[in-house]
Amino acid sequence: MRAQYSEAPELRKTPKRNPTSPDSDPSSSGSASSSDSENKKQGRKIRKLKKKLRKARKLKHSPKDPTPYKGQPDYDIFEKWNFEVERWINEYEMSNEKAVERIGSYLKDKASQWYMDFVAPEPEKYTVDSIKMGLFAYCFPPDMKAQLRREFKYAKQGNQKFIDYMRTLRRFQRRLPDISDRQICHKIWDTVHTYIKVKWIKAGMDSEETELETLVTAAEKYEQAEEVLQKAKTYQFTSNGNRKTEYVVKPRIAEQAKGLDSGKKGESSKAKKDKKKKPKEKSKGDKPKDDRPRAKLTKEERNQLRAEANAISALQYSKIDELRKEREQLYLSVAAIQLFGSPNVSDTEEETPTAADNELLRVTDENAETIKIKYSEIAKQIRDTYLEQASRRAQVSKENNPLMVLVSDPEDKEEVEELSIQLNAAQIDKGKTRETTTRNIERNASKPKDVTRRLPKPIIVEASINGNKLSTNSSSKKKH
């Protein structure tokens, strides 16, 4: 191990005797050699004791071990581990060979795997610096320096203090050694707050000639002055529009002078104190703004506001009535026509009464035009529409296949579905208020029902086609 002995003991040197002198004899030379050997032994003992003392002192104040590095691609963590390893080696006065052997104890995960694969088999080929470089190349991406340069290029002060921003730039300079102080001067000149740059210019500084330390020192002072100015502005507050008032602290000398004047007056000061003790009567002007009576509206203004409110409510009710009437539209389809001999008719008629022939209905066509029509006229329109479609289909079929024998079977399900038409019909309200509901009604069922079993009034259409009486049983369905 390396050891420095700056405090080596001073050995006493015996004067050399001249062998030709009459005082010199063999006995005196023997005693001198024995004293020299004793002094050497004593010096060795002293050195051993000092070495033991140093070891005991180190054991008493042992340095902290480095935090294990796990191989994260984080430059801050790697830099901290590097600093702790250097301090650990220096405090233990460790040689390079021993440091290479023991540094693996402070590596984990990915970094430890690299150490066991490359360094542990041949530790004599590595040094502490080569291990650090190998870990950096293995754990960090290959374009790490390019990323650092990109971050340095787009760095700005932003919301940071100048001292923090300068520390960030110094960190980039430490990790990228080719960044010079002059480059940092250009960087801070273009990216600091505007007021700092203005004060630099007023002070006659420049990024080309002024030293970096001079710019940094001046910027820190400018920033401190700006903070003091901002704190002073916080004592100002806005009230009653844009008028600003400030709190002014009176000096104590003025207060003391007032006290002396009041003491000279004597009774007048006591009278003033008595007046202060008496509660003041609150006037109307002393009331806070919220308690003051507000300006009352005139009778004409109140009537005008009521009229506007009534007009708005009437408009809303009219819109609601229009929406309600639209929901009362009913749909009739020829696909629901059945013969009187159908077994389902008797069951349906028990629960659905037949409507009167002279009952008026409101019918809406495809163009949203509404007309009033009697119940008995609907069957005629259905019959005419059916005959028209049947003749048109027969003509088309004859043109396509003249030899084909046409068979009209109105009971055929597919044929009836092809001839389906829709009439949007709604019964005219006769003054009775009916409860409207927006619940979903079950469709395509012989007994339509909703959650409450409240069924709207059904419509049964009687029509005759080709001399045969047909019956339509269609429950009115409300449009949602």
UniProtKB/TrEMBL annotation:
Residues 42-61, 272-281 have a biased composition (Basic residues). Residues 1-71, 256-304, 427-458 are annotated as: Disordered. Residues 261-271, 282-304, 429-453 have a biased composition (Basic and acidic residues). Pfam families: Retrotrans_gag. Residues 106-187 form the Retrotransposon gag domain. Residues 19-36 have a biased composition (Low complexity). It comes from the Eukaryota. InterPro entries: Retrotrans_gag_dom. This is Retrotransposon gag domain-containing protein. It comes from Thanatephorus cucumeris (strain AG1-IB / isolate 7/3/14).
